[in-house]
Amino acid sequence: MTDTSKPLPLAGIRVVEFTHMVMGPAVGAILVELGAEVIKVEPIGGDATRELLGSGAGYFPMYNRNKKSLCLDLKHPRGLEIARRLASSADVVVENFRTGAMQKLGLGYEDLAPLNPRLIYCSEKGFLSGPYEHRTALDEVVQMMGGLAYMTGPPGRPLRAGTSVVDVTGGMFGAIGILAALEERHRTGKGQKVASSLFETVVYLVGQHMAQMAVTGKAAQPMPVRISAWAIYDVFETKDGEQVFVGVVSDGLWEKFCKAFDLAELGADPKYKTNSQRVLAREKLLPEVRELFRGFSKAELVARLEKTGLPFAPIGKPEEMFDDPHLAASGGLGPVTLANGKETKLPILPLEMDARRPTQGGQLARIGEHTNEVLATLGLEPGDIAALRAANAVA
């Protein structure tokens, strides 16, 4: 549920974004839902991410809701001056442009910190400091480089994950760093620079496989051919051609599984008493379970599994989440009006805080919608703003 009767945790925090695509905007998307004022600085004409097609068509509406839009020409001296004044008024600056770009504009941390010693400056990069730091990176690049694509696809066929998982997770780490820096500022009164990166994020994500190698002495195999720790832990087909994942991950759940599906003889067989015994008998057990599940429709199988406590999941598609009953009941989707006027719902932060789902709503700013409002907070009079517009420094 959402509760607007009290302020959100980051109310009063001003964040200024110089971001595009996914990783940088994801940082602000988290902070704005927690109550911060997030001002997105866009170029004259708007962030090009707004116009992406195909798999990029959802980037802007997903990661820029509830932000304010200010359009500046950072190549114009007066536009750049406004950017510096805005950063000086901020608690947090977030940027995800190529290494060195902000410094060339005079908007790097070293340029802004003397103007605002309390500033927390978050850079979202391809790589942290080191030999690779000047390389250009994308989500897919680091998935290939860091082992995630290798682990996702079958042997010899590296496959990127089916969403911008590293961009979003890298943004999450950036937000975590910002929150930690805000807490430290409470004690010291000083800001600092925070950085997170795509490559180091993907290596963190595959860290469990690195640890597996360290523990066992054997390299982890790609997920499609991995040796599962459990005998029944797979996707199964139903009689109506649908698929359901089912996992039997403990001896207690094995007993529940056998009881739920009237497999008393199998449950009583001492050869299958422990998980290790069942794993060794996987080649015999799995065909029997596949045949069993093919006797149920998806709805019938889900209804029975629902009563067992077993981990299970019908194989869902993103578009099916719009009508998911749990999300509808829990308020997991928030309303938003797209640029073309279409009304839809998109996921809000997957958090509950004090029994509420934090969100600021679902507004998607028009290009430059808040330029006048934001400039007024910097002390500019209407005539000053009009002059800036006439000079094409702002829009």
Summarize the structure.
This protein is of the alpha/beta class and about 400 residues long. The chain has helices at about 25-35, 60-65, 75-90, 100-105, 110, 140-145, 150, 165-190, 200-205, 205-215, 250-260, 265-270, 275-280, 280-295, 300-305, 325-330, 370-375, 380-390, and strands spanning about 15-20, 35-40, 70, 90-95, 120-125, 190-195, 235, 245, 310-315, 335, 345. Strand 7 (about 235) and strand 8 form a beta hairpin.
List keywords for this structure.
Rossmann fold; formyl-coa transferase, domain 3; six-stranded parallel sheet; three-stranded antiparallel sheet; 395 residues; alpha/beta
Structure explained in plain terms:
By secondary structure, the chain is an alpha/beta fold. It has two domains: 14-206 and 331-390, Rossmann fold (3-Layer(aba) Sandwich), CATH 3.40.50.10540; 228-317, formyl-coa transferase, domain 3, CATH 3.30.1540. The chain contains 18 helices and eleven strands. The protein has helices at 23-33, 59-63, 77-88, 101-104, 109-112, 139-146, 148-152, 165-188, 198-205, 207-216, 251-260, 264-268, 275-280, 282-293, 298-306, 325-330, 371-377, 382-390, and strands at residues 14-18, 37-42, 68-71, 92-95, 120-125, 192-197, 233-237, 243-247, 312-314, 333-337, 343-347. α1 (23-33) packs across α8 and α6 (139-146) crosses α9. It starts with 13 loop residues before the first strand and ends in a 5-residue tail after the last helix.
